[in-house]
Amino acid sequence: MKAGDKVLSHYSLYGGTEEIFHKVLPSFHIEPVIADLRDLSKAEDLLRNDPAIKMVYLETPANPTIQCVDLEALIGLAHQYQKWAACDNTFATPYLQQPFKYGADFIVHSTTKFLNGHGTAIGGVLLGRDLERMNTIITKTHRLLGGNANPFDAFLLIQGMKTLELRMDRHCANAMDVALFLDKHSAISKVNYNGLSSHPDHVLAAKQMKHPGAMLSFELKGGLEAGIRFMDRLKMCTRTVSLGTVDTLLSHPASMTHYGVGKEQREKYGITDGLIRMNTGIENVADIIFDLEQAMMED
Fold it and tell me: pLDDT per residue over 64-92, tens digit each?
């Protein structure tokens, strides 16, 4: 992309992507256009009427409400109007979702997450359909910018990928059981998990994903104080902002990652005072549920 171009994307992107779009790309005179891309008519209007848009960038499922966008439809629209289509497939992994199947031009992953699976190395990967472009201009740009994985981190990633299928099957099975438990709990007002029929993107997720995935979020009725109290009472599950490891990881965005963001701004992205985000690990699911239940108990 070059100065004067635009990239079309949607709400609830990964925080690092948000920062690149709004703090880095504008310095290169590349403008982000953010819209609700679940509205396909709106997406088509933007693509039809703004020739400066050169790429559609998708992330599905996305933070924190696990919302999904229609890969087949949006990639089809992108190509109909001669735009590139890129997808962040970190949450789903290649095991659960394959954007190339729907014609995506590029896929990115944070390999730190499920591909590594153990939280032992930081990394990322860019994949592309056009091998000539990948092996020439993109490889040249990559080398000039200096991005590189050290040999040991690459080794750890390869070791993790050997168990990806086994881990993801267990992640998904546990997440479904946890979601069903939370959905019936009196302290919970809402569960965001696309494996539940109540999730607005349940049907779409079933169409484009093998299983619903490991990630979910839920809202505690008691708001901010209930969220802080819940996090402080966890005993087995880990309190951290990461995801994708074999361990169950939980975060309370309102008091952690988004503590400095005003309530009104947070809620635009679905981050309510009582929202808890959860990476469901591969531990015994009864142990996970027991820890969640005791953390929600009244004194």
Answer: 889 999 999 999 999 999 999 999 999 99
What does residue 109 show for φ and ψ, rounded to 5 degrees? -135, 140
What pTM does this model have?
Answer: 0.93
In the chain, DSSP assigns E strands to 6-9, 31-34, 53-59, 84-88, 106-110, 124-128, 188-192, 215-220, 238-239, 249-251, 275-279
CATH 3.40.640.10 boundaries in the chain: 6-152
Residue that the structure tokens 């891309």 belong to: 37
Q: Which fold has domain 163-296?
A: Aspartate Aminotransferase, domain 1 (3.90.1150)
pLDDT tens-place string over residues 167-204:
999 999 999 999 999 999 999 999 999 999 999 999 99
- Bridge partners (DSSP) of residue 7 are 32, 55
Rounded CA Rg of the chain? 19
User: Phi then psi for 203, rounded to 5 degrees?
Assistant: -65, -45
